[in-house]
Amino acid sequence: MKLEFIVLPIADVGRAKNFYQTLGWREDIDKGEGDARVVQMTPPRSDCSIMLGPSLTSAAPGSAQGLCLVVNDIEAARAELVGRGVEVSEVFHQAAGGLPLANAQGRAPGLAPDRGSYFSFASFNDPDGNGWLLQEVTTRFPGRLW
Fold first, then answer.
1. For residue 146, pLDDT beyond 60
2. Pairing relation of β-strands 121-125 and 131-136?
3. What percent of the chain has pLDDT over 90?
4. Which residue of 10, 46, 94, 143 has the lowest C-beta tally within 10 Å?
5. What is the distance between the alpha carbons of residues 113 and 131, in angstroms, rounded to a whole number?
6. Is the pTM above the cut of 0.85?
7. Residue 124: which of 47, 43, 60 has the closest Cα?
8. In what order do the strands lie in the sheet with 131-136?
9. 131 with 66: CB under 8 angstroms?
């Protein structure tokens, strides 16, 4: 099995498409009109896309949280997004180690101690409030492909 796309709950297809284009994502599909419009966008170097459309999901716009974009240099990726006009959090890690909690509790500023792979993050939201994490991965856990 392979994850091909994720449907994002959005209120306005055009606004969402413009935002993801600002991130430098590739437009794969833009078909239909009104409630039948579907847009598919893919992040650079990704095999998984997002699908945007007003009637693709019954989930409330902005309700998708914890969507993760893996980067090999968190500081450079953050700077690139900020340069594109995106409001991105400062880099953080979990004070107790591990993955970030949805409510931001336990987050400590800066890179993970020893800059350990998988444990440095930054976050941003799309215009609807769907929440994204940048996660720095420099060395994969055993058994994982890059």
1. no
2. antiparallel
3. 74
4. 143
5. 24
6. yes
7. 43
8. 67-71, 131-136, 121-125, 92-94, 107-109
9. yes
Asked whether the beta carbons of 136 and 121 are under 8 A apart, the reply is yes
Token output for 77: 């990726």
Full DSSP string of 102-134: TT-TTEEESSPGGG-TT--EEEEE-TT--EEEE
Q: How many CB atoms lie under 10 A from the CB of residue 77? A: 19
Q: How far apart are CA 18 and CA 127, in angstroms?
A: 10
pLDDT in tens, 6-27: 999 999 999 999 999 999 999 9
Q: What does the block give as tokens for 54?
A: 């007003």
Is residue 129 within 8 A of residue 87, CB to CB? The reply is no
